[in-house]
Design goal:
The protein is an alpha+beta fold. The protein contains 9 helices and 19 strands. It is elongated, with a radius of gyration of 24 Å. It binds zinc ion.
Length: 388
């Protein structure tokens, strides 16, 4: 029989893998070495070539549904100036009741906590295979381009007709203490590139030129107000931020021939990519036809409506830390945006205060609490009594 996995010890080991995005640096192999003895069927799924090559893992215990999946990433952001760290960023040291290192909060301890709770759960539920399945979707391409990671694994799962009933993403969702926040959706992100053309000329002869800056200002004017709506019950207002305006004109007596601007829209579910495109084009066309517009949208908004999934994680949090978590959709994007296309997703992990910072760390106690919360979640979700 396999032993209960120690989450703190495993977090240290994972931190010692220098898995700067998109490298897994042995972290995925390490997870497999823990999962296989528990009875998980592990499938490494690699995408991309050369330096773009990304290792991903899909591991499943059991063949029956419901299949609860835990999703996370082993890759981390770079350390920044290593001299500013007071601990080795890849040492995984435990000091002052905390575990230190890059990925401690975001999100190696989350993965270790879920794996620990699963080992505990399976040791108590000998007949679990008759009840359902547990799976892991782990990538090493979340913090970077996120092209060869979860996005492609989700497509692979669809191709293989592999069904996931619901998913927990173990990102550090809590703001200041364990249990304060779960994420039940995320806003979308839309980046626009606008280039306006005019006619270059002498500032003293404006009738012979056409200044594209004048058009650009009018085209973007409505978006200086920043907010596109007032938000909804579940989402903050959608916001537009102009991030760059470029003319490349050093001469004060020349009307430039061209100007470009970049902007980003963080949008809630009152909008879609098409409605945003239509809104922008409608505004731009009122001013001039003489422009080029391109965009990319790497995240559409989503909101989880699976009440059972949300209430089960909430109950587990309440049982362990006696806190009623807030349901949030704030912050940047996460891989939950890809997974939400195939099943309901909630995000819950550690406290995110130090993520991506110098001296990233988490409380060892918080890891222990997270193990208990995930254990309660599993036994409540599958309707068994091991942690009641
Ligand atoms: Zn993360």
């Amino acid at each position: 029989m396999s032993e209960i996995i120690n989450a703190v010890d495993l977090t240290s080991k994972l931190i010692r893998c220098e898995s700067i995005t998109p490298n897994s640096a042995g972290a995925i192999e390490l997870l497999i070495s823990y999962l296989e003895p528990l009875g998980f069927k592990c499938k490494k799924i690699n995408f991309g070539e050369g330096i773009e090559k990304v290792e991903n893992l899909y591991a499943r215990f059991g063949t029956k549904g419901p299949n609860i999946c835990f999703a996370g990433h082993v890759d981390v952001v770079p350390t920044g100036d290593i001299k500013k760290w007071s601990m080795d960023p890849f040492g995984g040291e435990i000091k002052q009741g905390k575990i230190w290192g890059r990925g401690a909060a975001d999100m190696k301890s989350g993965i270790a906590a879920f794996l620990s709770s699963v080992s505990n759960f399976l040791s108590k539920e000998k007949d679990f295979e008759k009840i359902g399945s547990i799976s892991f979707l782990i990538t090493s391409d979340e913090e970077g381009k996120a092209i060869n990671g979860t996005k492609k694994v989700v497509e692979w799962l669809e191709e293989k007709e592999e069904k996931i009933t619901a998913c927990i993403v173990g990102e550090p969702t809590n703001v200041s203490e364990m249990g304060d926040t779960i994420k039940v959706g995320r806003r979308g992100s839309f980046t626009g590139f606008l280039k306006v053309k005019g006619v270059q000329g002498h500032v003293g002869y404006p009738h012979l030129a056409d200044n594209p800056i004048n058009s650009l200002i009018k085209m973007l004017e409505p978006f200086v107000k920043i907010y596109l709506d007032e938000g909804t019950e579940n989402f903050q207002p959608s916001s537009v931020m102009i991030t760059s305006v470029d003319v490349n004109n050093n001469a004060s007596n020349v009307i430039p021939g061209e100007v470009s601007a970049t902007f980003n829209i963080r949008f809630n579910n009152l909008h879609t990519i098409n409605s945003l495109k239509a809104m922008l084009k409608n505004q731009f066309n009122k001013i001039t036809q003489n422009y080029e517009f391109n965009y990319y949208c790497n995240a559409e908004p989503f909101l989880t409506n699976d009440e059972f999934l949300k209430s089960t994680i909430e109950k587990a949090i309440k049982s362990v830390v006696k806190i009623n978590p807030k349901q949030s959709t704030s912050g940047g994007t996460s891989d939950a945006r890809f997974i939400s296309k195939i099943c309901p997703v909630v995000e819950f992990g550690l406290v995110g205060k130090t993520m991506h910072k110098i001296d990233e760390n988490v409380d060892v106690d918080d890891i222990t609490k997270l193990v208990s919360i995930y254990s309660f979640f599993l036994s409540n979700y599958f309707g068994v009594s091991s942690f009641d």
